[in-house]
Amino acid sequence: MSLTQILFLVFSAVIIGAALMVVLSRRIMRAALWLVLALFGVALIFALLDASFFAVVQVLVYVGAIATLLIFAVMLTRGVMDDSKAQLNRGWPFALLACLAFFGGLVWMLSQWDQFNSVAPALPQDAYDLTLFGLALSS
pTM (2 decimals)? Predict the structure, then answer.
């Protein structure tokens, strides 16, 4: 495996772990901070794939703006919300079963797809030029 593939797997594991912690955190402030980590991990994946424009937009818009607004909203409304009680969703076994069924169906569908294991052709170096991207969008 190349270094790029190893970094991709590490970043993906961090994103999945942070996303799980967003859902599983009992305190909303910690969930917001885990969300910041997950969004920043997505920006690292964009940077790893040489999509620098999207990496910068991800950091500025999502990590910088939306997550900051979410954290300030949580901090300003902390007195209104009582998060000291344990929140329990009584339907979690059904939700877990539905998620596992959906994930199993997704894995089955991808395994039936013939082109799933094919390798994409290498792009020429000028494919990463944002000028060509802008011209393609304007036409």
Answer: 0.58
